[in-house]
Amino acid sequence: MSKYEPVSAEVVAALQTALGAEYVRTDAETLEKYKTDEETDPRYHHLPEVVVWPGSTEEVAAVMKIANQYNVPVTPRSAGTSVSCGAIPVYGGIVLLLERMDKIEELNTEGMYMVVEAGARTVEIQEKANAAGFLYAGDPCSADSCLIGGNIATNAGGNKAVRYGTTRDQVYAIEAVTPTGDIVNVGARLKKKSTGYCLEQLIMGSEGTLGIITKATLKLLPLCPYKLDLLAIFTDLDKAVGLVPNLIKAGLNPTSVEFMDNAFVRSSSDYCELKLPHYEDGFYVIVTVETFNEDELESKMEQLDEICSASGATDVLEADDRVWKLRRNCLESTRVLSLVSTSDDLVVPVDQIANCIRHLTKVAENYSFKLFTLAHAGDGNLHFQILKGEMSDEQWEDEVSRFHAEAYPYVYSLGGRLSGEHGIGAKKVEAMEKYTEPVEMKMMKEIKRALDPKNILNPGKVFNA
Ligand SMILES: Cc1cc2nc3c(=O)[nH]c(=O)nc-3n(C[C@H](O)[C@H](O)[C@H](O)COP(=O)(O)OP(=O)(O)OC[C@H]3O[C@@H](n4cnc5c(N)ncnc54)[C@H](O)[C@@H]3O)c2cc1C
Question: Which stretches make up the FAD-binding PCMH-type domain (predicted)?
Answer without folding.
Answer: 44-223
